[in-house]
Protein: D-alanyl-D-alanine carboxypeptidase/D-alanyl-D-alanine-endopeptidase
Organism: Streptomyces drozdowiczii
Amino acid sequence: MAEPVERPSTEPPGTSGGGIAARLGVRGGVNDWQFTAVSAVVGLALAAGAVLAAGPWDSGQRKAERDRVTAAERTGGAHHDGGDPEGPAPAPSAPAVLAALSAAGTGPKDAPAGAARDLRAVLDPLLENDALGSRRGAVVIDTATGKRLYGKGADVPMTPASTVKIATTVAALGALGPAHRIPTTVSASEDRRTVTLVGGGDPTLDKAALRALATETARALKTGKAPSVRLRYDASAYSGPTHHPIGPNENIAPMSALMLNEGRRDDSVKGPAARTEDPAGDAARAFAGYLDKAGVTVKGAPAPGRPAKKSRTVATHLSAPLSGLVERALTNSDNDIAEALARQTAIAAGQPADFKGGRRAVTARLKKLGLPLKGVNIADGSGLDREDKVTAALLAGLLARTADPAHPELRPVLTGLPVAGFSGTLSSRYTSEAGGTGFIRAKTGTLTGVNSLAGTVVDTRGRLLAFAFLASGTTAPTEAQKALDKLATALGAGRR
């Protein structure tokens, strides 16, 4: 039986936060927001930053795809509707959130004695919704204090679906830092008769980048008057199984350290699409064509191989900073980037760049953050593997860490979360009926029988709350999503 497939948006998110500030008449914008070490103002600063710096106008989501793509049950895919191709209107809730923050005073209020009781009164009935299946897990944390305000089934390991990408991206940022870039290089042999295209694991390598590498390579080779070359390609940075455990499907390309446009056969298609079975070979053949256009003839067909001894690098392309890749992976629920980030984390840890190495490296990074890992199993980077098991406590704890001023390197996770009703995988959720539009940011997760939502929301006290809601045994995905959306909305505005 077919299940809905995770449907990422068509455009990667940007990093500028000036849009929302301009639309709301707020001076400054994202560049004016900074972390502060003074605990009395951390919550308010982060809450304001969550609204301003990560507002719905900074993500570049203007042409989200409308159609759902379905795949077989074995793909383990999830679904998310596309957004309005004309672009969102300003979030009606944003001014109200800012007004609430302004009225909150100089800092967040400590949770009153009855706060936990109040949340139970609000959330417990919503968690009883039959649409949430047979098992539920929920945790809410005040990010300013690190205090758990609510927990139910908090430490029960459950299948997270794509919300596991939160763990993947936190680990990658912790291991490599937000400024890290993934290189793709070209090496030339000492006699300049052999060049090797070397993949470093950047799944976002596109035709423009490959063309630029060819131009730079040709320029370097022509100084030595090389009339023609043999072309090799090297994807040895990755090891292990080529395919994800779910097998070949439209949600993810074969694992390769060298690929063009995430291995899509048609580079005009975004989101789920037919994928090549030879990502590295296809990239090399495209590169050969660009070399030819740049005036360097490639003799014979490109062949796999490593650079010859005494080769030197003649051209380099660097990916977007890791911060941008993290935001794109979270906003669009990009499986290929998520798996690449797990492997980059493995490489940084000295582990094999495969599924097992990624699991060990990501788990080790989470352990360093002091988070609860009992029963947790990080089987992959994307959440497509049903062997993934996490707890609501872990997901909420990870999100709280991203808002911790002691970990500014993790902030791209916070800014990469989709905005309710505006961007990425939340672009068509949180309608006016559901509420929550514009002030909830969250990562979605959907597999057959599994629905999850984990993110942040600014409440009416001006606190930035991290939450995680997991549901298993669901039978109606749309109704389960609505139930999750009501939970997050109730957290932020007290509306149910």
